[in-house]
Amino acid sequence: MSSRKVIHTSKAPSPIGPYSQAILAGHTLFISGQIAMDPNTGDLIEGDIRQETRKCMENLEAILKKASMGFDQVVKASIFVKDMKQFAEINEVYGSYFDAASAPARETVEVANLPKFVNVEISMIAIR
């Protein structure tokens, strides 16, 4: 049986519902979807999809670091967007965090709405 540990850092937004920032199950880290929220103020980063995506990635990075991991250990990402027309800008920022030759598996899905009505949410799975 594998171990299960809740991962939480003050450097990423606290959950806004009954979930954890991440769960480390054995050697696999499951990170909940992160939105463009400043963990210090609780304010949303709004207006520019590149800035919103960067904040999502910074929040994900903080959680990865808390679990002693990095983007090079991410094997799967899920991106949820409110408007697929913003895909190129989101993809540009997202891609800057990975080596193209070893980037994780991923899907990008357009949805009607996201928590707090943000424009982008990203979740990840990483392994040790």
UniProtKB/TrEMBL annotation:
Pfam assignment, any one: Ribonuc_L-PSP
Gene3D superfamilies, per the entry: RutC-like
A GO CC term attached to the entry: cytosol
GO molecular function: deaminase activity
InterPro entries registered for this protein in UniProt: RidA, RutC-like_sf, YjgF/YER057c/UK114
Family of the protein in this entry: Belongs to the RutC family.
Protein name: RidA family protein
Species in which this protein is naturally found: Muriicola soli
Lineage of producing organism: Bacteria, Pseudomonadati, Bacteroidota, Flavobacteriia, Flavobacteriales
